[in-house]
Specification:
Blueprint (H helix, E strand, L loop, with lengths): L2 H4 L7 H20 L4 H20 L6 E3 L4 E3 L1 H28 L5 H17 L4 H19 L6 H32 L4 H7 L6 H18 L8 H7 L2 H26 L4 H21 L7 H22 L2 H26 L2 E2 L2 E2 L9 H4 L1 H15 L5 H15 L3 H27 L11 H19 L2 H12 L3
Antiparallel strand pairs: 1-2, 3-4
Length: 479
Amino acid sequence: MTAAAIFPALPLFLPELLLAGGALALLLIGAFAGPRSTAFVNGMTLLLLIVAGALVAMQPEGRTIAFNGAFVVDGFGRFMKVLALIGAAGALMLSFDDFRQRRLSAFEYPVLVLLSVTGMMVMISAGDLIALYIGLELQSLAIYVICAFDRDSTRSTEAGLKYFVLGALSSGMLLYGASLIYGFTGTVSFAGIAAAVTGAPHSGVIFGLAFLAAGLAFKMSAVPFHMWTPDVYEGAPTPVTAFLASAPKVAAVAITVRVLVGAFPGITGQWQQIIVFVSFASMALGAFAAIGQHNIKRLMAYSSIGHMGFALVGLAAGTEQGVYGVLLYMAIYVAMTLGVFACIVSMRRNGQPVEAISDLAGLSKQHPAMAYLFALLMFSLAGIPPLAGFFAKFYVFAAAIQAKLTLLAVFGILTSVVGAFYYLRIVKVMFFDEPKEALDPMPGAAKLVLALSSIVTVGYFVAPALLNVVAVAAAKTLF
């Protein structure tokens, strides 16, 4: 690629360049200034994420292709990038007080978050299989490290190691699938693959698609590639778990939608079968496996598996309305998840973190504001109207019914009813169980994240128009 082709495309790549350059600069500052630079690096990282979000939002309308088709800037990518940046910023804010109390504060953590988010943004805008893999690995390598960030904790080290080993396996599967697709189509470009794969595809392409979908399902923690999720969620420091549950999920869902809709529109019937199975299995496991959990982080792990199943209901439809449902679902999911983890991060007693659901007993009497907002988010996760979680599920189920996937939509509704049990059990513990020793007050950053999350959860019913308009326009750019 010539310089004449590269330089005109650099403004489109500006948010990613900002994050990558900022990460390197902050790493140098931290290396020279040492531990005393941690607060400055934290603040600058948060500022970089906000500025990158503003740059993404200001990118030109329409669809622009750069770097010989390797990088795509469109409404879909902009929507998902902003969501990923919001998820990362919210999780980073939750780490400030928590890491200080755990004595984990170090300038390396925000730098790793920046590098991971850079990978996510490259992945979301990937226009070919090579860019997809580069973004995926940049995201994953940083996450492996932050999962094991608490070096004095056996659970944290185990979480990082498990995620690394299983992540390497999934990357191998994805690469094998990509090589098969390249071998049978002669191109790595999504547009080129779409032109080559029409009618009755070669069985090699189907095998490649299956392996590619397996690698992406691992990143979404969708069944049957979910096995790492409960242990990693429980073992990693809570702010890291909040990060895992939000930003990387957005990036994984985004690239899955882009690959399947953009590279394989001619064989929708084939990949639709894979997505329907994964959606069925994820909703079922998320609903039933969480019932017996006593650790709230493990419960949220199974909850996230279930929610990925619900989001994939929209993708299974394979239509513009289905993609619109996925976009809306992920936006609402990120808001609810950050609010829930703001409460979980605040579960401390005498300065020590507690994670058992029973530790929330009597919270309504000790910290009523936190209890009522936590209950609000639980109702929303369960899909109870008129909260945002209800509308998220409504749109993906409506898209499935319109695409004649009625059985999938009915199954999703039934698993939502089952899942409501464990969400409402948390509400019962907070409001009706005998109080335990009071939890410590919520940190200021957690209060802010919880307040913003609650506003979105309630406010969507009052003023949904803006988010809906943006999501509709974003979905159109893929078709």
